[in-house]
Amino acid sequence: MHSAALHTAGSAPFEPASESAPQCVESIGRRLCEALPPLRLHSVSIYDTQCNVLWLSEGALGPDEHQLVVDALERLAVGDGGEGFEQRVEDGRVAVFLAVRAEHAALSGLVMVLADTKATGESLLVRISTAGVLTLVHELTLAVRPAVPRRVDHDPTGLMLSLAVDGAPSDTGGAPHASAGRELTPAAVDAFLEQSELSLAVEATAPTVEPDAAAPIATIAPSVQPPALPAASVWQPPAPAAPLAAAQNVGGEAVALEVLPFVKLRSGGRMRRFEVLPRGTPRQNRDPAALDALAVEGLLAWMGAHRPDWTQEPTCFTLNLSIATLEDEQFLRRLGTGFTRSGISPDSVGFEIAEPLCTQRRAQVERFIGGCERLGCFVVIDGFSFDSAVVPLLRSKAVRLVKIDARLSAAALKDKLAQALVVAIVQAVKVLGIHCAAQQIESQQTLRWLTAVGCDFGQGPILARPLPIARLQGPAPALG
Q1: Alpha-carbon distance 158 to 31, whole Å?
Q2: Residue 366 — pLDDT band, cuts 50, 70, 90?
Q3: What's the rounded Cα separation, in Å, for the pair 447 and 429?
Q4: Could you tell me the CA-to-CA distances from 108 to 33, 74, 265, 347 in Å, in that order?
Q5: CA distance 477 to 277
Q6: CB within 8 A of 367, min separation 6: which ones?
Q7: Which of 248, 366, 376, 396 gets the most CB atoms within 10 Å of its CB?
Q8: Cα(44)–Cα(51) distance, rounded to whole angstroms?
């Protein structure tokens, strides 16, 4: 292992880049590759101080390379590696790390060069420490800023949370058990959607509330996951019944909605994404199709009543659907009516379909995806594992995001096959113009590696936790 200062004998002094020149990490990275002497080069990558990969020349980086960068950042931060050092890797490669920092300033990032070298005795660090390379590394000091460590209480979505206290009395007049004896039936839900009561709930029941006086409109229900529906069970649309009132105004029949953010792991784009988690009562959970319908009803009602909170910045929401809803041929027709009457754009709502359903109910899933494409909604494949039977579904324009099977991403740091599958998924969907998200991320090590291989979004307890949809607010207005 060699360590050296980068002001070598043949190096010219640093010359700061012009202030008017655009400081693009990608542009500097490409020029850096061109400035390197002839090498058997594997890749060149640029990182900030939190080990987030800002640019990668080619290929993908595995956990071993990621750990090299973690160790190098710690070493360069304390000055142990000077302004750069090289380290031989077990598979015969050599990694060279160049510190990105202005003169007398703290470390703001690093450059890693991975290459194969023959045993000539010459230091790779010395070979690449040319005037051109060092000047470009110095240019990076204007383009890369030290990353701020994520606080435990940090809100990665960039949203403002309301100050309403959990458990505060709602506007329902203090009669939470008034309708506790009424059982929510599929017939009531079907009648509600058929008679287009949704638009009335959106437009007529939404009070005008000043931003500083907003009160919660949904409460946190116990976290009860809906039970799995047997494969043979199909909800047949029943006869019409009396329409329901708006979900947010009927305490005993409301479905409490929470949202879980898709946190961006890569820069770029303004779209905010949230997964909607309906928290039904045990009675509601016995009918997953009815729960799905009420969740859609509650979401569209909230979107209609709080347009500024999700339209100031582009925002979309996704809901996970049950088998029964996928098999209901009338669901999308009723949904289209709801969109039309409420004035909500269909492309702001998407539906998550679990990968096993894509194989077990292939015909119904294909029909549903085709319907979403015609309607304008989008589709998310949940638990995607690169199943060969599911891959053809990615041809649809409605499929805009896949959520990687959590078992794959959790095992990727220990199992080479899982690692290869995650990298393959990330690269494949990128070619198709589809985003990918990792879920249930529980460690910083896993998060950093997923970011390094190019995953777009992440979900998990170390990133963000679900919050009631009532607390979801738009960006704060600019001061001054």
Answers
A1: 34
A2: very high
A3: 19
A4: 20, 12, 19, 39
A5: 28
A6: 329
A7: 248
A8: 14
C-alpha 33, offset from chain centre: 31
Full-model pTM: 0.55
Q: Higher confidence at residue 194 or residue 307?
A: 307
Domain that holds residue 49: 2-143
Confidence class for position 367, pLDDT limits 50, 70, 90: very high
Q: Is residue 289 within 8 Å of residue 186, measured between CB atoms?
A: yes
Q: Which residue has the higher pLDDT, 151 or 383?
A: 383
Taking the chain, what is the end-to-end CA distance rounded to the nearest angstrom?
54
H/E element holding 438?
strand 435-438
Residue in the structure block whose two tokens are 């043979």: 232
CB of 8 closer than 8 Å to CB of 14? no
**Inter-residue contact 358 to 381 (CB < 8 Å):** yes
475 pLDDT band, cuts 50/70/90, is low
User: How high does pLDDT run on average in the chain?
Assistant: 75
- Domain tally, the chain: 2
Name the phi and psi angles at 310, rounded to 5: -130, 0
How many Cα neighbours within 13 Å face the side chain of 113? 30
Quick one: 71 and 217 in the same domain?
A: no
Please write the tens of the pLDDT for every residue from 179-217: 333 444 445 544 544 443 333 333 433 443 333 333 333
User: Which H or E run contains 131?
Assistant: helix 131-143
Domain finish residue from 109, 126, 143: 143
- 383 C-beta neighbours (distance < 10 Å), count: 21
Question: CATH number of the domain that 219 lies in?
Answer: 3.20.20.450
